[in-house]
Inverse folding.
């Protein structure tokens, strides 16, 4: 996507005018319906909504080239949350099935602007399930997404028509590709990708465009992800995790998996990813005491809205957008 | 309230254990029901849910002695939101009735810990209504709170019983005291309060304890509040704003009012409160273009939970508490 950065800065500065347009109103109504549908679905499945943290002494380190934000919290260096994953592991020991609308800040490199799907500030519907496998939460994710698409088609027909969006309600189960299958598919399309690395943004977009319905990629290699994605005890180097990708080139929707939950294993993984365990005080203490195994995922609300509405630029899918590199309201 | 700070720090550090207690589970279930009830009520009233900002170039300056958090946003000084009030004025021009679950950080002075109702990080259900008066949003607030209390009593009977909480469902309309009446009442109780200042925390708690049901205090003096609370054009120096207080000593529940929306008046108010208008670029540009008059309020979710559950310490009313002055998970 080609972006005129100067023009975009001007456009975002005047969001107070654009937000009043019939187009933005239609998009925001779809977003409202999607939020409502997500929560209704999860309550129906027995989930409890909790309040997500905003800041904390430590946050998710596995954020692919983006920078965390550090603040001064009464003399202590705190982070603005880039993901509440560590906190979900705490909560799931209490309530078994939890979700939250979690605020995240990730200062993506300015070039991420060009993907049309990266924001520096975004919200996830984050959930976690005690003693679930990654395939079980994939089952949950596909039913959830199907439910949301059906609700939005049903209740936002006018908005979708105005936006020119013919939204499909995907059938379940969704297609599930292993990471190896996905990389092989991309190699067949001329992408030069080594096994063991994260699938690059342009390749992911290409892969996404090869499908008409959402699909999973699972079993990422250990070398591509953070310390908390659980390594399969029977298949060294392979994580019991997954992404859900939207079709039509919209790319990543969901990232999730089973979690490492044993103290010694987490320490070992931290050593490999170069994390300093001393920064993870409460988290490691908690693991030492023992927590329940769990699996879960996060679904970005702005990306979901972008897909539902069929708009190419993610800054159209949020009322007050923060795009990488550009200061805006 | 007397607090052993050292003991509290230790206690909060081990929240991963306490969160599994039957008491915390009961409180978190009540919170979940309250969130669900709030949204159901507002959707029934025609509100649209929007995504709240997390950071931005400017945030609510009217936060009574608390410090804002500044971050480096691609070389620009940004704030973590302490209130999304300015953004609600933007959104209400588009969607007429909006609400959001908004994340707020306010570094309260460490002595605020002793009130038992201040957090350094909290969440509000923020709402705004185009062309409403402050008495209309007070009507809305009381129906909403009544609805939430009834739902929680109805669906969380077991949790309330476990917590030993006999929650009243308040009748509407709630009592409405003007600021002058409230100050006079407090003077009669021996509090030495000048007209024109914010009601101090200890006096507010005392006032709150004089009632059995929630009640409003309205018409605060201009000298006590931020630049965005609208001054009554017919009664100079008096704001068309209000607080809702919980009874039984639980104190402030809601803060709201009509908004200043005219460029010249806001500039004049900023001059008086000592704000630098240059920091408010997009906001003042927006006012120059013209916005719709509106009224709204924010209700703190943790304080609501504290009241519903009848727990004295606000850090019991949130899964991952941040209390003033103490670093914790």
């Amino acid at each position: 996507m080609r972006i005129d950065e100067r023009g975009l800065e001007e456009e975002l500065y005047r969001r107070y005018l654009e937000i009043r347009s019939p187009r933005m109103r239609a998009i925001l109504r779809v977003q409202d319906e999607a939020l409502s549908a997500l929560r209704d679905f999860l309550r129906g499945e027995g989930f409890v909504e909790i309040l997500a943290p905003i800041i904390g002494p430590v946050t998710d380190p596995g954020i692919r080239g983006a920078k965390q934000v550090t603040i001064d919290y009464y003399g202590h260096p705190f982070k603005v949350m880039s993901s509440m994953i560590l906190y979900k592991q705490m909560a799931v020991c209490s309530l078994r099935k939890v979700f939250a609308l979690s605020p995240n800040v990730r200062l993506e490199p300015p070039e991420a602007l060009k993907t049309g799907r990266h924001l520096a500030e975004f919200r996830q519907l984050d959930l976690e399930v005690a003693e679930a496998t990654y395939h079980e939460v994939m089952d949950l994710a596909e039913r959830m997404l199907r439910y949301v698409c059906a609700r939005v088609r049903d209740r936002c027909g006018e908005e979708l028509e105005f936006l020119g969006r013919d939204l499909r309600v995907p059938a379940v189960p969704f297609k599930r590709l292993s990471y190896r299958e996905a990389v092989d598919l991309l190699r067949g399309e001329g992408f030069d990708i080594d096994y063991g690395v994260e699938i690059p943004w342009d390749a992911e977009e290409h892969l996404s465009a090869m499908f008409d319905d959402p699909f999973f990629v699972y079993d990422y290699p250990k070398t591509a992800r953070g310390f908390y994605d659980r390594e399969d005890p029977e298949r060294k180097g392979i994580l019991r995790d997954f992404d859900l990708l939207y079709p039509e080139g919209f790319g990543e929707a969901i990232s999730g998996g089973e979690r490492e939950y044993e103290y010694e294993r987490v320490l070992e993984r931290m050593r490999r990813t170069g994390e300093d365990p001393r920064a993870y005080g409460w988290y490691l203490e908690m693991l030492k005491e023992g927590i329940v195994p769990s699996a879960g995922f996060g679904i970005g609300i702005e990306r979901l809205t972008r897909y539902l509405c069929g708009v190419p630029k993610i800054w159209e899918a949020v009322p007050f957008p923060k795009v990488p590199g550009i200061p805006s309201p």
